[in-house]
Design goal:
One of its GO terms (biological process) is response to redox state. This protein is α/β, with parallel strands linked by helices. 48% of the residues lie in helices and 16% in strands. It has 3 domains: 8-77, Winged helix-like DNA-binding domain superfamily/Winged helix DNA-binding domain (Arc Repressor Mutant, subunit A, Orthogonal Bundle); 84-192, NAD(P)-binding Rossmann-like Domain (Rossmann fold, 3-Layer(aba) Sandwich); 194-228. Helix 1 (8-26) packs antiparallel against helix 4 (67-77). The longest helix has 31 residues, at 194-224.
């Protein structure tokens, strides 16, 4: 792991590079230029060279980056060379979908337990993981040495649940709940809001429709001006 502090924006792009590199490694590719990696990750090559320079990786002129070596570098920097025990809070539709997502285990994130406040869900098994009552949070977090929690609870319960998780020793939270929550200094928080992402897509769709309407209107006006 590098000792130099990496900017947050660069850290956010490292998983994109890792996914692209793993895809290419599985296809038998041994080296990639910054341009090829940029195209695969959806960023420009200048950003890639800058981001990877924080890891001390500069590639080889005329050859590019060694794919397997770069995978190892980024994985080490992201802390993916060890397994992380996590708890998933919320066994509703979203929580069950997240529990069934195989990508967590593939990247070293083991869901040690699922927690829920509904007694009717306690005792269920989702994707091979038992559902416990939220009252067991402190015990499970201590026994499983959990640092990361995934929050998939209703918005009105999110802050209270987050507070309890932090008190129990959780230091990182991935929040899928439709609510803005506050955490104390020293606790990392990432939010995934699917409705916001859809609204952003809707904005671009609306712009596309308006652009098409304007273009079609211009064509009609042009045709109207032509002689019969």
């Amino acid at each position: 792991m590098s000792q130099r502090q990496i900017p947050e924006a660069s850290v956010a792009r490292l998983p994109l590079y890792l996914r692209a590199l793993i895809d290419r490694a599985e296809a038998g590719v041994e080296s990639m230029s910054s341009g090829e990696l940029a195209a695969a990750a959806g960023v420009n090559s200048a950003k890639i060279r800058k981001d990877l320079s924080y890891l001390g990786s500069y590639g080889t002129r005329g050859v590019g980056y060694d794919v397997e070596y770069l995978i190892a570098q980024i994985s080490r920097e992201l802390g993916l060379t060890q397994d992380w025990s996590t708890v998933l809070v919320g066994a509703g539709n979203l929580g069950q979908a997240l529990a069934n997502y195989g990508g967590f285990a593939d990247r070293g994130f083991r869901i040690a337990a699922i927690l829920d406040a509904d007694p009717a869900k306690v005792g269920m098994t989702v994707a091979g993981v038992e559902v416990f009552h939220q009252d067991q949070a402190e015990r499970i977090i201590r026994e499983e040495d959990v640092a990361i929690a995934i929050l998939a609870v209703p918005g009105d319960a999110a802050q209270e649940v987050a507070d309890r998780l932090v008190e129990a020793g959780v230091t990182s939270i991935l929040n899928f709940a439709p609510a803005v929550i506050q955490v104390p200094e020293g606790v990392s928080l990432r939010k995934v809001d699917l409705s916001i992402e859809l609204q952003i897509l809707a904005y671009y769709e609306q712009r596309r429709l308006v652009s098409d309407d304007l273009a079609n209107g211009a064509v009609r006006r042009h045709l109207d001006g032509l002689p019969d």
